[in-house]
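Supplementary Note 3. Input sequence used for the single-chain structure prediction.
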Amino acid sequence: MRTRSQAKDSFWDNENDLRTLLMGKMDSNTWTANHMSDVTRILGLSPCASRLKINRAAHITQALLNIGQWDDLRNKMAESETKFPNQDRNSSLITQQTIRANRLTPDTCLLLYTDALRLRAERERDQRQGQEAAQNEADGFIANRLDRNALIPEDEDELEGIDNHPGQAHQMAMLQEDAEAYVANDNRPEVDADQIRAWREDPNEHPDLNLEYNEIRRQGRSHDHAMKECRTSSLRKLSALWKEAVFPNNANPVRDISGLNHDAIIQQIRTKLREQNWLRKFIFPQGIPNAHGPEQAAARREGERSRGDKAAISSKAEREANNGCLSKAQQILLDSKKAVRPSQNAVDSKFGIDKLLKDDMTDREKFSYTYDPTAEGTTLLIDAEDVRRHVEGLRWNAAAGASGMTNKELMALIVGPESTDNLDGIASLLNIILRGWLDHDDMILLNKCKGVALDKGNHAQDETNIRPICIGESIMSVVNSYVLGKIADKLSKLAGVDSGYQIGLTRDGILCQNKMMQIRFEIDTATNAQTHIIFKIDVRNAFNELSRVAIRKFLKSKLGMAWPNYLIQQYSIDADVDFGNGTRTQMRTGTQQGCKTSAHLFDAVVHSHLECNNLFTDFPDCQINAIHDDTIFRAPVTRALALFRRIIDLYKELGLDINQNKTEVLFRGDIQNIERVHGLEGLTQITTNISNRGMVFGGIPFGYDGYVIEHVISKVNEYEQLANKLRLNSTEENIGTVFSIVRFCLSAKWPYLMRALPGEIWNSPYLGTTIGKYIDSISLRTILEHMDITQFRQDLTESELDSLHTRLGLRLKNGGLGVHTVHDYCDSAMIGMWASNVDQIISSLGRLTQRETNELKDSNTVYRIKETARLMKRKFEHVNAFSQQQAVDIGLKTGDNSTMDILTRLIKHAAIEKADRQALRGGKHQGKLRAALNMYNANRLTDKMAENIDNRAGWKDDPYLRAFIAQRSPVANRWLNRMHLNKKARYLTSAQVKIAFWITVGINLIVENRDCKHCAVKLVNWFEHGQVCKKSRKRKQQLDNQIKYYTRSWPLHKDIEKLLIEILAKIPDVTVTDRNPKILDTFQMNPEDPYLGPARAQADVEDDEEEEPAQHQGRIIAIGNNFIIREYGTHYGDIKIICTFPGDNLRQIIIDVTVGSTHAKSNLKYTINEDKYSAGLANHKADGKDKKHKHYLHGGNAIGFALDSMGGISKAAMNFTNLMFAKGADNCKRRWDSESMRVAIKKQFLDRLSSVICHHRVLDFIFLGIPNRRFDLAQAQAQARAQALVQVQAQMPAFLAEAHADAEAQAQVQEPQEQVGEVQEQVGEVQVGNVNSANSPVVVS
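The predicted structure, written as discrete structure tokens, is reproduced below.
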């Protein structure tokens, strides 16, 4: 053997191979441009002359290879804290002793040192960002990127809010995918703006970073990507201009800018923006002539109107739904909110002049905007995280403004590698706008709106019967969203929220006012009082008619905030409104249409004017409330008309007129002779809409039960008409969209009324059932329209329908469909709202006499709340109502204001006593009561399914019961959240959705047990046999042309693995490094419990164990269970990841996926836990993985990611998911783009995980054989016709019989065969009887 000195001249063992390995490391995805820059700095190297990644890698590699001494290498390794690939999180540094003990070569040490350099670069970057963030938090410059969103518990419950807003979650996921595509589809040489800055160059002068739109398009980039790149360039320039103007000479950025010369800054900014034509280049990167403005939008609407057939409507709705825009899809299918082409005359009729301007031109100049430096604040207003929060709050599917720039395009700027620069640029623009520093011409451009005219119902007969909608620029939406967030509290006070006047701006204000009015009505009825009268007043076109003179006077005198310059400037501009086709107008009066501040500002201006004119002090004995432009008051009959006239006069002083046709009166006396009542003389000249039964205000009725029921029934009729129209206009293509529309849109209309009205209303008889049940049946019928059970079998039985009604309203995690149902949850909605607001409701009644107090305690409202609470408490007290763990989870008897405490207080006089109502004030009691009731109903359904089973052990033998209990999991039914997406995104075709739905609701598509044609097992239950049949999945081998079989588990296993890899790649601080890793390569063997077996024993292989099939030419060859294509004598995981969480040591984690079949015989004993209401199979499978991992010292970093075939997830898998999607500690925040993005990606992962499992459940039944009742009936009818024909022909002469047979053969209809072909096409490329995982649908991104 040669010595080192004899062997070679170089210090390295094999320098060429080592160079290749180092270059490969740095050219991989784990090394970014930032890594390159930081490592270059750490090594003390001069910047690389080239900008190409491969050349920069070569530059660093050569520097590393120049290390020529052991001492030098060891010192550098120690300095960078070089470690072995960690066997646990606390592994020690590599030292001279460990090098000798492990016989490490210089080449190995250099490779380890290179990895340590990358990790050191990440640590130092984290530290710098943390220091910068801390400094920015103190100083408050625009680059403050600390996440200041409200903390949300990091578990599955944090998804409940976003689950109810599928569009919001979908838009965040789509933005992430678009950002990835923006980078992945760019094949041009990389240009790193940070590196350019490091070379002391200006990125705004670099030609490759400042290309025009057409140049970028010629380089092969798409329109969207070219627009984004141009706007990124513009924002980078604006950010530089802002810093140069506000913080010249590289001054440290601070929030306090009181010492700056504002006049000079304004002049500099306006001059530069004009010279660069900045705003037009930002909004119109492709040029104004090519923008998709009002003319193009009008032409597109004309084209859509010409394609109004059912197929076109269905396809258009499906496209909107696939993008998460369910409300738009609903409008299309319901044919509502139709846009029409307005005439100039119709538009002019809707946009008048300011009634308070006597001489339009003179007064307009008098009230024109002039910048007021004394109103300027001394601090910066908005920073980058403010920008991110408000931009993410936009609806990405909203229509574009006049420029054609969409919310989606603006939102795309804050996601991806350039998001930091873009956030700074947008923050700079918003600061300029908010301070009123933007040039007048630019503000006119930003305030221009696109007009859309909606048909109010009879536009064809009356061209002026339109509702004009004005759509502003997306950047102005962000500005106004920020302004509203800062001044909402002050505007709310000025609007009279604290005094109880304005109820439209408060949480539950309308509901509380309704309850107050209902109680007042009941007290007056009980005391036979006729001393008071109620008026309801509606203001005509209020938001468009409010005088801007009044608005500007209010802003100058009342607001006193840091940005009156912006608000006054905005309301000094007559915004242009362009409807296309040459129809234009100006918005000269009213609040800014489409502006988020409009409602608050309108309310504040009106209330301030009423208050300044002493309305409330002059009528202290009257109760006056308003919901924006609708007013209601209760007054003594002798004062009512005076108050009415006073309000009208004060409205006129604001330029407002009432709609007298909508004025209504409620009086308990004799309304036929109402003018004989003293004080009400002349009332019928004001209005004839006079009732003594009840009134509707804010969409909620109050009064006698009969009146309330009539109103509810009218809403039921409207609901049924909408549902019928939805069914009529939809096709089978919309099967998932219809489900989601019912779930998120249609049925979501009812909770508002449910919270106000008692259960007695919903339980009133209606068409042979009750109102609540009838509403739920409409929802269910609409969903079942395209699910079409009769395609597979006879119609549903009564017991199956009862089960469906219960499942309809259960939460997804309780095994239900998540639809809003009325019958089961009207009680929890009403008493939950009451419990949270009883203090406010009782206080709003004012001072009561002793008799009124007594009548309050005996009122219908109080009685119904007490009885409802008593009945609910009785349910929850039952010994079998909840398991012990469930009672803890829902806070049944634990925590502040436990569920039982709430009900106990309500049983006692509906908690109207002061101590009770104050104890309940402000709590989220409705959610707590609904959660308890939902779990109770799920438990009762479980008991009902098991009522014919003699003993507990028998529960596990019932496949429907096993499946339902397994579905009571955080993940199992989440695939329903993706029903409205396209078949690629939900992993199901329309035909497969039907099968998935019926499996999920526990309906067997083959009612009778049959012999399996695949495995010859006798009388199998179709519902469970699909998962366990060992011969339904088969294909013909290419090698020997033999039919072979394989299990369901392996393709499912691999699809989950693919999904995990894809999602883990989106998570910051996580890197996927290996697939199928040997556990021993990462973790040491446990000396106390080493793994000794050369291979698994036959007894250890369960019926559903995952086995990897052999492959030939990329296609799977089915083989027996005992064949394992992995090295004997060791264990493998599925995925290995490295986690570099801030504040934590580097972690290496191995993920080991396993899925157990709920219906496999070997698993039955684990399927249902002792508590009866939870499944245990997933946790059992996780325990099995733990037994495997205990042979290694993994320190908790070997994860058994276990699920069951119905979608149940183990605690270990859920805990791992929460770890991956954690926000991090306060001082060690994870590098998520935003809180919204974090939650959206977590939701996407769990929804898709459920979808993958559901997809494979469907494949089980497709392989087993899909029943087609219609085809079977058609075949039976054909056979009967054939037999009849034979009998007829037997009696005919031979020549006539032959001619008749020929004619019959030609006329035969082929519909059944075509129908089968359609089903086979819709289930994908899968063909029953010849299917495997190589040609079946798999996980797609």
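Residues 106-139 form the longest helix (34 residues). The CA atoms of residues 496 and 1328 lie 68 Å apart.
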